[in-house]
Amino acid sequence: MSTSYLIKNVSVLGGEPTDLLLKDGVIADGADASADGAEVIDATGLIALPGLVDLHTHLREPGREDAETVETGTQAAAKGGYTAVHAMANTEPVADTAGVVEQVWRLGREAGYCDVFPVGAVTVGLQGERLAELGAMADSAARVRVFSDDGKCVSDAVLMRRALEYVKAFDGVVAQHAQEPRLTEGAQMNEGELSGRLGLAGWPAVAEEAIIARDVLLAEHVGSRLHVCHVSTAGSVELIRWAKGKAAKDKTWSVTAEACPHHLLLTDELAATYDPIYKVNPPLRSAADVEALKAGLADGTIDIVATDHAPHPHEDKDCEWAAAAFGMLGLETALSIVQQTMVDTGLLDWAGVAERMSAAPARIGRVSDQHGRPVAVGEPANVVLYDPAATRVVDPAESASLSRNTPYRGMELPGRVVATFLRGTATVLDGKLQ
Ligand SMILES: NC(=O)N[C@@H](CC(=O)O)C(=O)O
Ligand SMILES: [Zn+2]
Ligand SMILES: [Zn+2]
């Protein structure tokens, strides 16, 4: 018989303290007599949120098991409060067939730390030349609904149009890595006065914004669902705000967007260290961009926070800036960064965090039958207990990830994930993996 948990004095989304019983995979009333025999957790001072859902995680398996595996990546996810992650397709081989997505999905089930929903590639081998077998991936056991060439932009407008048309058949969504390739050849950091001074090739805001503008028009033209990955500029927020206004009057198409924790906190000034720990795609931008992203996330223009957890082994990061890989870890620090940038600043309450880190990503990924549901009696017991009053200093050595490329090393961050439950089973208790 599986353990049941009686969680005493917990504040659901910051509300009045109550008791919750997690039993047989679902949430029951804490006053229920069947709580006898349950393991009791004193949750005084803790907040209960729905298990977090990441729409953008790189798990690296198959192919780069030196950087991360499905098992280690989902362990990091559980420690960060996640009960579901969408695993990006830029593996080796690329997740562009039913076979590969089923393999990733199965590895997630076997590991058991959180549900893994594979993202399917839009084009064969992420080459941007031919559409991958989107229908076969959708019909596979992995039931793929999110398609992305993330890491690369689907820059061919005809292919992007076809992909948007194709996914309508199974209510899928195309998640675009918006980067105009010609405008970003050799790009290393945000284009601005600083890139000139540092002698690093610039990645201009317009390279992101031009693709978003085009894709929004394509999504409207064919009547489909577009999702914009890792929005990083103020201009992108403006475009998405405009697009949402248009889409609201129509309903045959939609645009959703994500922001990453690092883009809510860090700025391009950090490139002056020449430390590639701060090298990421899209790059860290200006303080004005950070403010626009936070405002967009607060007012709903940006629907969700996604981590873009991008593990890289030390040999790909401990080198000169231009040679280093793009990307940084994110799963174990996301909730703390959102607390620091959005909650402690008064921009969001905990209900707003639950919407942007759980409910909305589950809806966009079409997994809301199980995930992103309210913390309420009768719902699946996917729950995270979080201590917003705790603080911790980030030590990369403590990460469950196989990689160490966190930009928050040595920083004191607010909050601590105390426990994570996946269908009533503890994956994390007292901050430790189970
Ligand atoms: N974000 C990154 O800098 N890197 C990602 C790719 C991506 O998300 O575009 C990776 O796979 O390493
Ligand atoms: Zn990307
Ligand atoms: Zn990514």
Q: List the total number of helices.
A: 12
- Classified in CATH, the superfamily of the largest domain is Metal-dependent hydrolases
- Extended strand count: 19
Helix content: 25-40%
**Main sheet overview:** 9 strands, mixed
Account of the protein in words:
The structure is a single chain. With 434 residues, the chain is α/β, with parallel strands linked by helices. It folds into two domains: 5-47 and 379-433, Urease, subunit C, domain 1; 51-364, Metal-dependent hydrolases (TIM Barrel). It is built from twelve helices and 19 strands. The protein has helices spanning 70-79, 98-111, 134-139, 157-166, 193-198, 205-222, 234-248, 261-265, 287-299, 314-317, 334-343, 350-364, and strands spanning 5-12, 17-23, 26-29, 39-42, 47-50, 52-57, 82-87, 115-118, 146-147, 173-176, 189-190, 202-203, 225-228, 254-259, 304-305, 383-393, 412-422, 425-429, 432-433. Helix 4 packs across helix 6 and helix 7 (234-248) packs parallel to helix 9. The mean pLDDT is 98. Its EC number is 3.5.2.3. Pfam families: DHOase (PF12890). Keywords: Hydrolase, Metal-binding, Pyrimidine biosynthesis, Zinc.
